[in-house]
């Protein structure tokens, strides 16, 4: 405000001087003086304005190359100099922080690639260069799909479902196995994180092969033992009551081990990536009617069981796998529901997706157990699980079957009020029946 007053005072003084000349020497002389003064003022401003424009047009304007000036233009150039110094300090600070971030990112064991909104490479660290066989200096601005030629990766980018990582094999990198995770951020940018899980995958394959081989080898001797125990159970010459009880316990435990081995082999088949889903049309209504009758047999009249079929839509998938998953959910409802309880099976379409659900009035499950229910051998109540004859693998099998069919398992439960297990299938898995 003081600068404005100073410049206004100069204009007022010039005007007063002109008025004085007008009164003393006449209007012509006064106007000539005023015009000449204004012309000098315009030339002064044009001179420094031209100098400022020339400075701005230099390739790299700096504080040291600012024109020298006095008066108002001197103040302007001084302010520009301060702004330039502040900007240079901020830019230097930002460059330092960016360099620190790049060094930290380069030191990460994971590969990091920054993609723009059109999936072009903006930056990557050395680990990502090794993982994807790219060169930052050469490939900056290239589409990531031109360099990572994996059909499943291109589909992963297109579907924009980044909740789960994608596992890919890089054949060019000596069978390198990568876990890829896309993280959207900022202005439609994405962060591509890659992890080398080759060793972990090999250990997992060894574990699966070990479990499958051991289970397969145990199946034959257990079958033999079970056969002899069944034969002995049918003999009438079994001695004392202790002998009969021991024979019964051995038979029960042998059957339990056989069920455990069958479940382990089923899990191994489901985990095998070389075992794709056998796609076929599944008549869900007919399958549920069969499971309804099986549930009634298992219940033996101890429960009130109902079946609600709201649609005749079919599913595309593996009939054996889905029957196993649905059967697990139904048998669990029967096992964990007290006598006189209610169990409802239903099949319908909700929000365009197929939904199968099993609702019971059983003992219910506390909320802290729900996230771990589908883990192998996880038990809410170990003693009760032993009483019901469960293997602890049923829900793990359900989880793998549903994952292979792109379905989601939703569990709602409250202790003392029962549970609801719902399976939601995507719309592209549904086969709608034509309306007659």
Structure in words:
This protein is α+β, with helices and mostly antiparallel strands and 436 residues long. The protein has four domains: 2-100, no CATH class; 108-196, PAS domain (Beta-Lactamase); 206-271; 280-431, Heat Shock Protein 90 (2-Layer Sandwich), CATH 3.30.565.10. The protein has 13 helices and 13 strands. The chain has a five-stranded antiparallel sheet, with helices on both faces. A hairpin with a 5-residue loop joins strand 1 (111-115) and strand 2. It starts with a helix and ends in a 5-residue tail after the last strand. The mean pLDDT is 81.
User: What do we call the CATH topology of the largest domain?
Assistant: Heat Shock Protein 90
Query: What is the arithmetic mean of pLDDT?
Result: 81
Helical proportion, percent range: 40-55%
**The level-1 CATH class of the largest domain:** Alpha Beta
Task: Give start-end ranges of low-pLDDT stretches.
Answer: none
Proportion of residues in β-strands: 15-25%
Beta strands, count? 13
- CATH homologous group name of the largest domain: Histidine kinase-like ATPase, C-terminal domain
Q: Characterize the quaternary organization of these chains.
A: single chain
Which CATH-level-2 architecture of the largest domain? 2-Layer Sandwich
Quickly count the domains: 4
Number of helices: 13
């Amino acid at each position: 405000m003081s600068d404005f007053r100073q410049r206004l005072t100069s204009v007022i003084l010039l005007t007063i001087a002109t008025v004085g000349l007008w009164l003393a020497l006449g209007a012509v002389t006064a106007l000539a003086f005023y015009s000449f003064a204004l012309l000098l003022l315009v030339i002064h401003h044009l001179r420094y304005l031209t100098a400022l424009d020339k400075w701005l047009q230099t390739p790299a304007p700096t504080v040291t190359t600012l024109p020298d000036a006095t008066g108002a233009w001197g103040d302007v150039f001084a302010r520009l100099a301060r702004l330039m110094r502040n900007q240079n300090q901020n830019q230097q600070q930002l460059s330092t922080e960016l360099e620190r971030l790049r060094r930290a990112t380069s030191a990460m064991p994971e590969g990091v690639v920054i993609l723009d909104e059109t999936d072009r490479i903006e930056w990557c660290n050395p680990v990502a260069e090794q993982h994807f066989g790219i060169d930052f200096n050469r490939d900056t601005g290239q589409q990531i799909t031109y360099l990572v030629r994996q059909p499943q990766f291109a589909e992963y980018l297109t579907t924009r479902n980044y909740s789960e990582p994608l596992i890919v094999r890089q054949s060019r990198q000596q069978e390198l196995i990568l876990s890829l995770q896309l993280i959207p951020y900022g202005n439609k940018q994405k962060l591509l994180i890659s992890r080398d899980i080759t060793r972990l995958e090999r250990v997992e394959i060894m574990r699966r092969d070990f479990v499958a081989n051991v289970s397969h080898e145990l199946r034959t001797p257990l079958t033999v033992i079970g056969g002899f125990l069944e034969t002995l159970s049918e003999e009438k010459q079994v001695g004392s009551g202790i002998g009969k009880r021991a024979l019964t316990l051995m038979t029960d435990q042998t059957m339990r081990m056989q069920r455990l081995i069958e479940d382990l082999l089923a899990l191994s088949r489901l985990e095998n990536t070389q075992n794709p889903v056998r796609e076929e049309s599944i008549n869900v209504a007919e399958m549920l009617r069969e499971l309804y009758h099986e549930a009634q047999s298992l219940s033996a009249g101890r429960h009130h069981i109902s079946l609600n079929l709201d649609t005749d839509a079919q599913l595309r998938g593996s009939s054996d796998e889905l029957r196993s998953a649905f059967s697990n959910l139904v048998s669990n409802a029967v096992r964990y529901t007290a006598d006189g309880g209610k169990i409802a099976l239903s099949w319908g379409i909700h929000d365009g997706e197929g939904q199968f659900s099993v609702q019971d009035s059983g003992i219910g499950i506390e909320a802290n157990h729900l996230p771990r229910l589908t883990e192998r051998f996880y038990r809410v109540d170990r003693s009760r699980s032993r009483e019901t004859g469960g293997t602890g693998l049923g829900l793990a099998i359900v989880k793998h079957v549903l994952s292979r069919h792109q379905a989601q398992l939703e569990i709602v439960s409250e202790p003392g009020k029962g549970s609801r297990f719902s399976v939601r299938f995507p719309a592209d898995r549904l086969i709608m029946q034509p309306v007659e």
